[in-house]
From TrEMBL:
Domain NlpC/P60: 236-360
InterPro entries for the chain: NLP_P60_dom, Papain-like_cys_pep_sf, Peptidase_C40, SH3_YKFC_2nd
Protein name, entry field: NlpC/P60 family protein
Protein family membership: Belongs to the peptidase C40 family.
Keyword entries, A-Z: Hydrolase, Protease, Thiol protease
GO molecular function: cysteine-type peptidase activity
Single GO BP term: proteolysis
Annotated Pfam families: NLPC_P60 (PF00877), SH3_YKFC_2nd (PF23795)
PANTHER family reported in the protein's UniProt record: GAMMA-D-GLUTAMYL-L-LYSINE DIPEPTIDYL-PEPTIDASE, MUREIN DD-ENDOPEPTIDASE MEPH-RELATED
Record's keyword annotation contains Protease: yes
Amino acid sequence: MKPDGGLGAGRSSSNRKYSKRGYIMNWKMLAAFVAILSFLLVLVPKQSEASAPTCYSPNQPKRNYINVSVSTLWKVPGTKRTIDKYSLSNPVDMRKWTASMPSANTRKWLTGKTETQALYGQEVQILKTSGRWLQIAVKDQYTAKNKYGYPGWVPKSHVTKQQAGYNNCRKAIVKTKTADLYDDKNKKYMEISFNARLFVTKTEKDWIKVITPSSQTKWLKRSDVKIYAASTKIPKPSGSNLVNTAKMFLGLPYLWAGTSAYGFDCSGFTHSVYKYHGITIPRDASEQIKKGKSVSKNQLHPGDLLFFAYNNGKGRVHHVSMYAGNGKMIHAPRAGKKIEIISINTEPYKQEFAGARRFAY
């Protein structure tokens, strides 16, 4: 036997024993490390929670929100006109849709076919499903038609679910006719309407960061919004506040069912102006006249609402306007016309006057 052969064999045997022990020890250490790491991971919040603002409340139920700039609610689901594709897609293109209806007849076609509109970020209740359509109720649009809010049908793609944990965050309300949302302060994401409301997660000198209905973070110019701790914290408006807000939309073409800066109907106009100032009134003129405080025609204040009815003011209420002061009113008249200021003695309104209501003071 070679002198170092035995020694070499002995060393090899010993190494195999130690190697086996080391292998077992390494596995035990690895298992212990994994157990400790798993414990620590339980203590560390998820990335989305760790980066969430302090106003965020985790583990809240999901709610349904409008996920397009403006969603038009239809009386029945199903096929519409070719030009209506701009209002049915995601994203919608409200400018193209309204521009594709230049005549009074193309806009009159919507009468009785559309119900109302809901803005980006508005909460809705899902009532029914039919194929690619959802029947929803807009929660902050009061109506006797449904206990949850104003009902109608929208494409499924217009609605998304979001964790409701941001409800304690401050709200940004768009105060301009329209405002742009940005991805990173430079790249435009989408245009949204006056009165759209989003939860604020961060404020800077010239910008605010908001959470979208799809739980993404985007940016808005601070000059485009007003920020409140909650809708209940909006200051009570004066009559001139209401009238000045209404005047922003002079010259805007009438749109049946409209509640956005791309077009209003008569009651959508008054409902939206009051909502912007923190006052909730019903969606339709026929129900608005039943609320508030009755005032006589010779005691009108700016901001009061005037109502008009068929049969010389004694029949069904069909129109509403806002008193603008000095014997004038501002209103959205009808398809083919634009928001205007006229005398309250203009016919047929003088003859059809059915009463006035005060909501602001």
